[in-house]
Amino acid sequence: MPSVLGVDVGGTKTAVGPVNEEGTRLAAPLVEPTRTRDRRAFLGGLLSTLRRAMFEFAEHDPMAVGVACAGNIDSETGVVFSARHLPLADFPLASYLEEALRLPVYVDNDVNAAICAEVVSGVAQGLAEVVMLTLGTGVGGGLWLGGRLYRGASGGAGELGHMVVRAGGLPCACGGHGCLEVYASGRALVRYAATRAGDPVSDPQGVLAGLQEAGRLTGPEVTRLAAQGYPGALEAVGELSRWLGVGLINITDIFDPEMIVVGGGVAEAGELLLEPARELVRRHALPPGRDRVRIESARLGNEAGLVGAALEAWRRAG
Predict the structure, then answer these.
(1) CA 175, CA 116: separation in Å to the nearest integer?
(2) Are residues 140 and 209 in the same domain?
(3) Are 104 and 231 in the same domain?
(4) For residues 154, 80, 105 and 300, what is the CA-based torsion angle, rounded to 10 degrees?
(5) Residue 308 domain boundaries
(6) Which pLDDT score is estimated for 19?
(7) DSSP one-letter code for 35
(8) Among 5, 144, 211, 316, which is most buried by a count of CB atoms within 10 Å?
(9) What's CA 39's distance to the chain center, in Å?
(10) How far is the CA of 220 from the CAs of 15, 28, 156, 189, 284, in angstroms?
């Protein structure tokens, strides 16, 4: 039975897996690091990962490739206009991959792909008014409004990570200051934990300091420690949750959605992250939106972008 290879290209890792026409993943994805040193390294690494995936998933007969990629993308042409965490500015990614792989390739923004997957087969199935926020290397957003994907006038709608939550705040990779991405991303979580490393109250056993010294203080490590109840890690997740709550208040007041779906690697902190943010929405967002909106973790997890990219490729391949 034919499949489409769904590809989720992030700032730290790339995942590839076969998906059928109903959005069912047919095998566990292949996951490899994303090479972001420069464009040549990035493209070489991506092609190597895709060729390995085509070999590993040959039994599923891949007939096309759907790529979910962080950045501002023309989904019709597959040109990546800008990508803050990838070396792809003004690059025709779809045509480049088509020539190399000899398969049809469709490219879309990663969160646009993810929200489509969550609406089709995930936590927001059947809903008409949904906003998605993904917390990873950066912070991305997607808008499903009036029962369809909302792209805006030029295809760049949904850059929710660059709403300003603190005027005059820390600098962001976009060139602005005080963006949500600076305060609610995986990098922010590591920063919050690092400020507590070595503190006798927050880091009583020196675990954070040890990880920092070894160069192993990462978002997943902080999340793991928080789940175990380690004080400094819990405080770091709590600090990020408060900034996430500010973003969710803005989203609730602007879009009045039925649901806000929170995904990405940072969201693996689960209710430690989401419940304090929900409480801020309940206290500070405007009625009636605050009383109706549901704030949920992405059901498809880190594979939502992969599945959504494949579904879009199925749709467009006809």
Answers:
(1) 29
(2) yes
(3) no
(4) -80
(5) 3-116+302-317
(6) 95
(7) -
(8) 5
(9) 21
(10) 17, 20, 30, 9, 30
Direct distance between the N- and C-terminal alpha carbons of the chain, in angstroms, rounded to an integer: 16
Count of domains forming the chain: 2
pTM, two decimal places: 0.87
Exposed e or buried b per residue across 285-308, where buried means at least 16 C-beta atoms within 10 angstroms of its C-beta:
beeebbeebebbbbebebbbbbbb
Looking at 162-258, list the stretches that DSSP marks H as alpha helix, in order from N- to C-terminal side: 180-184, 186-194, 207-213, 219-227, 231-255
| CATH number of the domain within which 21 lies | 3.30.420.40
Task: Tell me the C-alpha distance between 271 and 27, whole Å.
Answer: 28
Question: What confidence score (pLDDT) does residue 189 get?
Answer: 98
Instruction: Find out whether the peptide bond into 87 is cis, omega within 30 degrees of 0.
Output: no
d(CA 49, CA 43): 10
Residue 121 resides in a domain? no
For residue 297, list its beta bridge partners. Answer: 262
Per-residue pLDDT, 57:
97
Kind plus residue range of the DSSP H or E element containing 196: none
Q: Are residues 279 and 130 in the same domain?
A: yes
- Chain position carrying tokens 């026409």: 21
Average confidence (pLDDT) per 10 residues, the chain, 318 residues: 92 92 93 93 96 96 94 89 85 96 94 93 95 92 95 88 96 95 97 98 98 96 97 98 98 98 93 97 97 95 89 88
